[in-house]
Specification:
Elements lengths: L1 E3 L6 E6 L5 H8 L7 E5 L20 E10 L8 H14 L6 E4 L3 E4 L2 E12 L4 E10 L23 H26 L9 H7 L7 E5 L5 E9 L5 E4 L7 E4 L5 E4 L2
Helix pairs in contact: 2-3
Pfam families: BPL_LplA_LipB
Protein name: BPL/LPL catalytic domain-containing protein
Keywords: Ligase
Length: about 260
């Protein structure tokens, strides 16, 4: 473990050659410091994503998790998940000429294919404080094992190496989160959404008014028209047979796919 004196927010960092999961590790050590803590690994053999799905990666892909101590009420801030996705996407845009996009709820797409995913978890540390653990996995090479998906798989091409990318993403994400986090500390809560709808629309994988499939865990599929996100970060789908003609999707267990 070492302390990175990044201004204005220093953070602790754990670097491993191999680990079961960077997020699992941080959840085990949560509460030992109020400073941000970064964990990275050259390989993880039990990586996981949304709904506990396995996250497959190659050696030396980007695998990192960032932990910050936060007031418990900060975890319910509207648009937090999408705010984090946009921050990470913005960092990647500075190191590549590839097209970087975000896909609801918080996936990273590069040149039209899935390249990364973000998982946000909460850990209780005491009666009124928690830790937020942000796991981020990104392909720096194409997967060696073929996994059947509804879209192609891509990877980031950058002049930075894995550790440089991790430090860049972590430093920028800490800076982005500290302003709303400090506001929550002083005011007790944040009563507005962190999501900038215009920024999301500019980077959105889906086009406005695009026909998409809404896939539920039960296997049910609904075809609808993608209307973007509301301020709370919910995806809005137009479907004439639904109440008020609008489906609001707020669970990562529900998958949005292009209609082909």
């Amino acid at each position: 473990m070492s302390l990175i004196m990044s201004k204005p927010y220093p953070y602790y960092i754990f670097n491993f050659r191999e680990l079961d999961s960077t997020s699992s590790f941080l959840k085990k050590v949560a509460g030992f410091t109020s400073k941000p803590v970064l964990c990275s690994s050259a390989y993880q053999h039990q990586g996981y994503g949304q709904q506990g799905r396995a996250w497959c990666s190659n050696h030396n892909d980007l695998m990192m998790s960032l932990m910050l101590s936060v007031p418990s009420k900060f975890l319910t801030t509207s648009g937090l998940s999408q705010f984090i996705a946009l921050s990470l996407a913005s960092s990647l845009e500075t190191v590549t000429d590839q097209l970087i996009q975000v896909k609801w709820p918080n996936d990273i797409f590069i040149d039209g294919g899935k390249a990364g995913g973000i998982l946000i978890e909460a850990v209780k540390t005491n009666h009124d404080e928690s830790a937020i653990v942000i796991g981020f996995g990104l392909n720096l090479s194409l997967p060696l094992v073929s996994v059947p998906l509804d879209y192609p798989v891509t990877s980031l091409s950058s002049t930075l190496d894995r550790i440089q990318l991790i430090n860049l993403c972590a430093t920028n994400l800490i800076k982005a989160l500290m302003e709303p986090l400090n506001e929550c500390l002083y005011q007790g809560q944040i009563d507005y959404s962190l999501l900038n709808i215009i920024d999301w629309q500019k980077s959105d994988y889906f086009r406005q008014n695009e026909t998409i499939r809404v896939q539920y865990p039960s296997g049910d599929v609904i075809i609808g028209t993608y209307l973007g996100l509301d301020q709370s970060g919910e995806a809005l789908i137009y479907n004439p047979s639904s109440p008020a003609n609008i489906i609001k999707v707020n669970s990562g267990a529900v998958q949005l796919r292009r209609f082909v």
